[in-house]
Amino acid sequence: MGSIVGGFLLPHDPMMFTHPDAPDAPVRDRVHEAYREISRRLAALDPTTVVIIGTDHYILFGPGCLPQLLIATGDLDGPVERLPGLARGPLPDNAPLARHIAGHGHRHGVDWAVAPTFTADHSVVIPYHLVAEPLGLPVIPVYLACGVEPLLPLARAVRAGEAIREAVEAAGEDERVAVIGSGGISHWVGTAEMGRIDSGFDRMVLDRVAAGDTAALA
């Protein structure tokens, strides 16, 4: 039987790689130390695999096909973008567990799209590179459609998280899985509000995450 041993939320801002000198040094150092702290906490959980839940940016998918829920179940590489200091290359996978999560979901009402071969974008590769790669962990990428319409309804996002937990707990192997949610909060990509920060909203979301209040989040 497997178990979810921990969960983390973190941003995946590509400007850390494209414009590393943009913030003042104390701000930059504080941000990178936060990632190192997450990596230390992750190591303390002794996980066997990390599931990284990323977001579509209209880079991997487009108007021809925009899956709302996708799990990568086989050979992985990335990132698909060209980012300074982050070369594209293979990523270690846990294909048996990924296929189990997909199949378990299909049998229990979760309509995962499945990618047996997959090139991840920065929303998976940046957190992997900064947090999980130093620990040599295999990764299972999950993508949610939350960048362009039709957006994934929030209740379905909650159900996807529940389905991952249920599948891991039903796994035959003794998997210890950590989950990383990769994204932003007050984060209006591609709109007039882009760049504005709503600290009150951010704190409200984080408080509900810390309390495990998925009903309020949805």
Uncertain runs: none
How many distinct beta strands? 7
Tally of DSSP helical segments: 7
Q: Provide the gyration radius in Å.
A: 17 Å
The main sheet comes to: 7 strands, mixed
| Spatial separation of the terminal alpha carbons | 29 Å
Strand content: 15-25%
Quaternary class: single chain
The helix/strand series, from N terminus to C terminus, equals EHHEEEHEHEHEHH
Level of helix content?
25-40%
Explained architecture:
By secondary structure, the chain is an alpha/beta fold. The chain is built from 7 helices and 7 strands. Strands 1, 2, 3, 4, 5, 6 and 7 form a 7-stranded mixed sheet that branches. α2 (about 25-45) crosses α4 and α3 (about 95-105) packs across α5. The chain starts with a strand and ends with a helix. The model has no long low-confidence stretch (mean pLDDT about 95).
Topology record:
Layout: E1 3-10, H1 15-18, H2 25-44, E2 49-55, E3 69-78, E4 89-91, H3 95-107, E5 113-119, H4 122-132, E6 139-144, H5 154-169, E7 176-182, H6 199-210, H7 214-217
Parallel strand pairs: 1-7, 2-6, 2-7, 3-5
Antiparallel strand pairs: 3-4, 3-6
List keywords for this structure.
218 residues; seven-stranded mixed beta sheet; globular; 37% helix; alpha/beta
How would you briefly describe this protein structure?
This protein is an alpha/beta fold and 218 residues long. The chain is 37% helix and 22% strand.
